[in-house]
Design a protein that fits this description.
single chain, Aminopeptidase, two-stranded antiparallel ribbon, alpha/beta, binds zinc ion, 6-stranded mixed β-sheet
Length: 254
């Protein structure tokens, strides 16, 4: 008859507790639905409010992740305004978690379309690539690439952080898609696949008009080049106004 020694049992039990603690930490996701409350997101007077679509995708994503055994923390789960520093503070109170911010894009030019994903911290690059590849492979949209940019929620978070722009609400095709629950569910499923680091079956190459450098399987735009180009056509520059204002202010303070 096999008997476990009490000390061995105690060591085993504490090892398991430690392992499950470490495991549980890695499987905590802080989900951030962009905008909310008086902040509709997008350009002024935009037909489709961004805040509703980001919340809907985030709630769908929460259900999927929870079904996969993840612990999910929401920076908001209703139509309320949450200041960016509060979003960051929530994220930073879960060390060992990852932060995923959900947005939709906008532009004054209706033709602008596609999916783009942002990160800032170098420890976030692989998560950004995984999410981006999965979202692009599941959407009929252009691949606008992965970009490193110091948005407030990416720069101030102390955990791996990614911001995904799930298409342009100002584009007739992508806007119409975003209005359907089926498509928002698909987006949530693809983001979840990315969080789970599942391989994407196929990712369309980066949009030809965008200049890029290829790093392995990832497409990363050259920040210096893309910034001046991007600023003029300005899709996302309107998008995170408060973060930009703050970063500019910070620069002048430095
Ligand atoms: Zn946004």
């Amino acid at each position: 008859m096999n008997r476990l020694h009490p000390i061995a049992l105690a060591i085993f039990a504490s090892f398991m507790a430690l392992a499950s603690f470490a495991f549980g930490q890695g499987r905590t996701i802080v989900l951030d639905a962009g905008h909310g409350g008086y902040d509709r997101g997008g350009v002024p007077g935009q037909r489709i409010a961004e805040k509703d679509k980001t919340l809907d995708v985030a709630l769908r994503l929460r259900r999927i992740l929870q079904a996969n055994g993840y612990r999910v923390i929401m920076t908001r789960d209703s139509d309320v305004f949450v200041p960016l520093p509060t979003r960051v503070a929530i994220a930073n109170s879960y060390r060992g978690a990852s932060f995923v911010s959900i947005h939709f894009n906008c532009a004054s030019r209706v033709g602008a379309n596609g999916i783009e994903t942002y990160y800032y911290r170098s420890d976030s690059a692989s998560l950004a690539a995984s999410i981006h590849r999965n979202v692009v492979s599941g959407a009929p949209s252009e691949n606008r690439g992965i970009r490193r940019r110091g948005f407030y929620v990416l720069r101030r978070t102390a955990i791996p952080s990614v911001l995904v722009e799930c298409g342009f609400l100002t584009n007739p095709t992508e806007g119409r898609l975003a209005l359907t629950g089926d498509y928002r569910q698909k987006l949530a499923e693809q983001i979840a696949r990315g969080i789970r680091r599942e391989p994407a079956p196929y990712t369309r190459p980066l949009t030809a008009s965008l200049r890029s450098v290829s790093l392995g399987n990832d497409f990363v735009r050259v920040p210096a080049e893309s910034f001046s180009r991007h600023r003029k056509s300005s899709k996302s520059s309107r998008h995170h106004v408060s973060s930009k204002k703050k970063s500019r202010k910070k620069k002048s303070e430095d």
